[in-house]
Amino acid sequence: ANVPYILRVGAAEYRKIGTEASPGPKLFCLSGDVKMPGLYEVPFGITFRHLLEDLAGGVRDGHSMKAALFGGAAGAFATPDQLDLRLTVEDLAAAGLPLGSGVITIFDETRDLRDVCLRQARFFAEESCGICPACQEGTRRQWEILSRLAEGKGQPEDYTLLRDTSWTHPDRSRCGVGQMAALPILSALDHWPDLFKAP
């Protein structure tokens, strides 16, 4: 709904909302383990903490945030130490987090993030159309490795294989499925490496 407002008040007035580099309001869809999930229209530049705690009421009662997935299934994870990050295009990019469509999913401390990654890997493996071999093989290998770890049959080399596989297909894929499928897994590997290492 930005265009009617711009036409009514002009671009200069519109640019007073948000920040200089990220003007205007943005819709954020907050879901997951949050008291008041929903669609929030806020000016660019507010902090993630303000959106989550002040507007959405915080994480569900008795729990704390373990992670937040920015950008949907093909996004990247944020940790509690990033709650004071400003929600702007430039600040999120500097933190390695995609703005995407504004989707943010909250996970509390009871959630198994390796299982979250497994479900995402399965989704992308099933969605790969098969035209690009790197995507077809890469997404399937991610799913296989994560499935093996979930079954307690992980191998010592799985962590390295998962990281190598995840780096392989983004540059060799024609569409967003192959280009983005590895982002959440690579992000989780950076934040919680021990989750992906065989016992």
Question: Could you explain how this protein is built, in words?
Answer:
There is one protein chain. The protein is built from nine helices and five strands. The protein has 199 residues and is of the alpha+beta class. The protein has two domains: 2-108, Ubiquitin-like (UB roll) (Roll); 113-196, de novo design (two linked rop proteins). Strands 2-1-5-3-4 form a five-stranded mixed beta sheet, sandwiched between helices. Strand 1 and strand 2 form a beta hairpin. The chain starts with a helix and ends in an 8-residue tail after the last helix.
Short description:
It holds the Pfam family NADH_4Fe-4S. The chain is 42% helix and 15% strand. The protein has 199 residues and is of the alpha+beta class.
How is the secondary structure organized here?
Elements: H1 2-9, H2 11-14, E1 25-32, E2 38-43, H3 48-55, E3 65-70, E4 76-78, H4 89-94, E5 103-108, H5 113-127, H6 133-150, H7 158-168, H8 176-180, H9 183-191
Organism: Anaerolinea thermolimosa
GO molecular function: 4 iron, 4 sulfur cluster binding; metal ion binding
Domain NADH-ubiquinone oxidoreductase 51kDa subunit iron-sulphur binding: 114-159
